[in-house]
Amino acid sequence: MKVLFVTRPHIGLSKGGLQKQINCTAECLENRGVEILRYDPWRDQLPEADICHCFSTNAQMHMHVTEAKRRNIPVVISPVFAPYDIPLWKMVLKVRLAEKIPGMMNHFKYLKQMLQTADRVLPLHKEEARRLVKCFGISPEKVEIIPNGIDQRFSGADPTLFEEKYGIKDFILQVGSIDRNKNQYLAIKAMQKLPYKLVIIGETMISCQGYARRCREAAGPNVLFIGPLDHNDPMLLSAFAAAQVFILPSYSEVMPLVLYEAAQIVPAIIVSKNIPLEDHVRDLVMRADPSDVRRWIELIEEGMRMQPKEELCRAVLSMATWQGIADRIFDIYQSLLK
What we know:
By secondary structure, the chain is an alpha/beta fold. Helix 10 links the parallel strand 9 (about 245-250) and strand 10. It has helices at about 15-30, 60-70, 90-100, 105-115, 125-135, 160-165, 185-190, 210-220, 235-240, 255-260, 280, 295-305, 310-315, 320-335; strands at about 1-5, 35-40, 50-55, 75-80, 120, 170-175, 200, 225, 245-250, 270, 285-290. It has 14 helices and eleven strands. The mean pLDDT is about 90. Helix 7 (about 185-190) runs parallel beside helix 8 and helix 7 (about 185-190) crosses helix 12.
């Protein structure tokens, strides 16, 4: 079985959850004997493919979807649809306007065509599935919820490496690309009122240089910018192990992998209320409005006094691994080829 993986053309310019989702899925499908063909814009790879699997909602994949269907090649889409900072009714209205008014929000029009053309749509959780069905009118019968897999290495991480290099422990940690959606500025504003140390790990997005500069200008001596760390870097695992509070104040996320990695070992987890969470995890973390600095200050203070929650770690470790997720996707591929 050969599967063509297609995604947004600029995927290689940044490291994030989508890139990890694609790489981990590919690696584990290869363990099942699937040959993964990664998108090459200079070649027509569809004649080599048994299935076309598209990742993200990028409208530039529209041609691959329509051409694959024209050639009778099954299409699977993992949309990673993430506008959770926008009310559902407003999203529905935007999609309808895109269809009615020429040139307005064309990406929604193309996305609707892609989703309705696909043979299977694989949202990460039930809230994403609900929004996709409501906004784009796709048939619920072709929707199957396939979450991200869990990397269980974080549960046994050792803080020593980070503590020896940076000389700090029991700090507040935020991991992710530095951009407006990740909302590092809120964390920095909160730290102006707190005596603790904030560690920010992540690279600055190309389009967010001004935002990153604003964050650095607002940061006091209790904020440490470390820059990007590779996901397999032992220093990243050690940073999680050395932290007391992990924060994720993003305006919108789908299923942030970093949250489920932190939950394996960091004693206190504070998450934006905009982020949909797995049912068995939701009641074990603290949540706040991503614009309410005062509330984040209160929860950070509470988190600095908390003990590790074994129940949260067990809940996360009970979730499927990447190999388990790939096995489910493999079964979907096989069903489409019958």
